Amino acid sequence: MKFLRIAILALILTTSNNCKEVKKEASEAAEEMEAIKEEVMVETIAFKMEPKSDSNVAGEVSFTDENGKVVMKATFTGLTPGEHAIHIHDKADCSATDGTSTGGHWNPTAEPHGKWGETAGYHRGDIGNFTADADGNASVEFTTDLWCIGCEDETRNIVGKAVIVHQGVDDFTSQPSGAAGARISCTGIIK
């Protein structure tokens, strides 16, 4: 009988210690999961721009998705000095020599063309204008929480789209594209 009591007591103590151990491990795991949630998920995709419409416009564009915002950074060479329009177009297809294989502006919300944030409506692809210096070089930086890289929201997902640089200036009023002229550089955003 005494042996049985000792065995039961040992079993209770072992189980008690194991429960404490399990609780401690569970608590540590929960803390680790919280730390992981707080880590920032950053995704970057980058592409080379290729000349179109017999231009010499080349460059690079990158998109970084961090903390619910996408930052686009682009650099270009071979531009004519002055202002040029840049847009995201509907299809990641730069196969046409004039860039028209990219389709129209990316417009998943069916808005009229306009100036981002300043007009009643604008396409999600209406980035705007930028200025090339006297040597034909330019850089563009644009940030928005209305884009994402590869998310399931098709009104925000830029994967499968194209970046187009135009010869002219976007007037922000002409429909459907701002009368920005020829497509002189292209890259497809394919992940």
Question: What this model shows, in words?
Answer:
- The radius of gyration is 27 Å and the shape is globular.
- The protein has 191 residues and is of the alpha+beta class.
- The chain is built from one helix and eight strands; from the N terminus they run αββββββββ.
- Helix content is 19%, strand content 33%.
- It folds into two domains: 1-39; 42-189, Immunoglobulin-like, CATH 2.60.40.200.
- An eight-stranded antiparallel sheet has the order 5-4-7-8-1-2-3-6, with no helix packed on it.
Distance between the termini: 72 Å
Question: From N to C, what is the helix and strand string?
Answer: HEEEEEEEE
According to CATH, the homologous superfamily of the largest domain is Superoxide dismutase, copper/zinc binding domain
| Helix percentage range | 10-25%
Topology, number of strands = 8
The largest sheet is:
8 strands, antiparallel
Number of helices: 1
**Helix/sheet category:** alpha+beta
Strand content: 25-35%
Walk across the major sheet and give the strand order: 5-4-7-8-1-2-3-6
Q: In CATH's first tier, which class of the largest domain applies?
A: Mainly Beta
Rg of Cα set: 27 Å
Overall mean pLDDT = 85
CATH fold-level label of the largest domain? Immunoglobulin-like
